[in-house]
Amino acid sequence: MNIIKILLVVCYCFLAHVVFGQAVNWANNSLENKHTVHLNIGWDYGLIYELGYSYQLDSEMPIILNALYSFPSGEDFFDDFKIKLGGQMSVLEHGPIGLSLAVNGIYRRYENPLTTLQNFGGEIATAIGYYKPRWFIAAELGFDKAIATHFNHTDAYRENIYSEVKDGWYNPSTGGNFHFGVQTALSFSQNAFVFRIGRMATENFNTTPTIPYYMRLGYQRKF
Amino acid sequence: MKNLFYWMPLMVFCFIACEEDKSIEESGNLVPPTVDEAPNLPSIFINGTLLHAEAYGNPEDPMLVFLHGGPGGDYLNGMNVKHLANNGYYVIFYDQRGSGLSQRHDKDTYSIQIMLDDLTAVIAHYRISDSQKVFLFGHSWGGMLAAAYINEYPDRINGAIFAEPGGLNKDLLDEYGESSRKLELFSEATNDVLYGDQFITGGENDHAILDYKVAMISSFQYHEGNNEGVEGPSPFSRYGAVTLNSFVDIAENDGFDFTLNLNQFSTKVLFLYGELNLSYGLSFAEKEAAFFPEADIRQVDGTGHEMIHFKWDNVYPPVLDYLNSIN
Known about the structure:
heterodimer; A: mainly beta; Lipocalin; 2 helices; 9% helix; elongated; B: alpha/beta; Rossmann fold; 10 helices
């Protein structure tokens, strides 16, 4: 896996307006307030804190670009984190019923006393729901693929577990997880409180993450 | 631009597909190969499986079989026990079915009975006469397995040493588990266990992947402030994740009780507990030892659950005294 391939993956993520981002009330979207900041807390493979920004494009079809940064709780703040860049669009509206599609590119990092992992991934998600100007509720389904992962092991791993472990890029993909659940929000003027909750399963379907649930409680402010 | 949009993903995936990078599914990359993949490793074929196994000492001496922890662990961190070969014991080590460097099997093939049958076959493989005495030395899950064996076959074993068996029945296992392996929501150690789930996933029988995931998070066992008093990393070769998962399911779904016939085992047994293991201690040792008619309980000073690796000098005297007293 060389740097060119990594860049290509990232470029594609941008060009395709890629991974799953924020819960958006498509019935309460206005070009008067193109900018939104997001603050979230929740469970996403650990207790996480998330900061985000989104920008609504001035396009015929509603498109929102997202940037998200999240990190888990713990004594070391910067050893584990996830960055998502992408976007989402409303692809179908029929009265209050709406269908949206989101695509994101992901860079994430994980470190513990034995190994450091860096991963480029992608996420695609869809939500279908009932949207009113002050609130909405929607069902969501998504898939997060860990496309290529770099492994770097510490001396502790080599000395105590496996001295001949091979560091470097690993592909084909090292994993993938589905998520499915609900998202809902209440809007007040330029503010909104959002809530998402659901379940996860690995792409093999016969195993799950250790904690097979996700949850987000968030605040959004438009300006 | 529109063409680029359509062709870019194809180009990306062609690049990835064309380059022969390493695969996490392949043994030898992130985890060592097992005995069926590396014929140079010492092994025995018993009961339809190939086990990683070694023996030390005079084959005519009384046999001492070491049972490692887990389920799924290996005997590497119990290798100090081989010093008993110098004291007139024929010391046998084996990685249990689907554990350590032994051959892997599908998750639905495991049972307590098959582990007992394997132990019977291991003893038969190394034993040279019916009069040769057989002792068991079980650490953690290995102690549970030793109890299960004595519970099923009280007349086949001549003595047993239990180094902190994690629960001889389901209630005791739950009690020990709740105390020893708590996840603290805000701690780094919790992240070290959980956050990697988004990087690596495997199906229920993807051995190399799942074994690596267990190895990757094994630092949790010795994180600062751990209740079991584990001082730091101790060596292991490879963890049998599928074996572990299978026995977790068996315990949860079927329960177990290895204590029902232990009162028939009239020989004195030895229980060891580490001074620094806050989850075990004298009170838990007494609960477990009470299932046997006669038991000696000894504290191992200055160490915790991994006492055999970290404080062998303190483990060795009571073990040798015990073995010599019943030999």
